[in-house]
Amino acid sequence: MSAVLETYFQHVVVDKLNETIAKQFEDMKEELQVLKQLRTDYTSLRTELDTLKERFAESGNEINEMIAKTGKKAMAKKKPATAKKLAVKKKTTKK
Predict the structure, then answer these.
(1) Could you give the CA distance from residue 80 to residue 82 in angstroms, rounded to a whole number?
(2) pLDDT tens for residues 24-59?
(3) Is the pLDDT score of 1 beyond 90?
């Protein structure tokens, strides 16, 4: 009887436990693959975000340089006009 129970236990219970454990490991393996993919996606997105930040900063610097150049040209053009107005005002005040 003991030999029959031992054989039954080995074939039914141990095989069932092995099957359950193997299924759990497969599930964990699939979840690990999903996590690895998410990590790869996160790394790619992070790299892309850093690149966009750098581009944005560079664009801002270029825009500031263009504004500064345009501002200097506008100031250079405005100074003679202002000087003429001051000269005109001085002449009118002397009379």
Answers:
(1) 5
(2) 999 999 999 999 999 999 999 999 999 999 999 999
(3) no
C-alpha to C-alpha distances, 66 to 3, 6, 60, 74, 79, nearest whole angstrom: 92, 88, 10, 12, 20
d(CA 14, CA 2): 16
The span from the CA of 70 to the CA of 61, in Å, is: 14
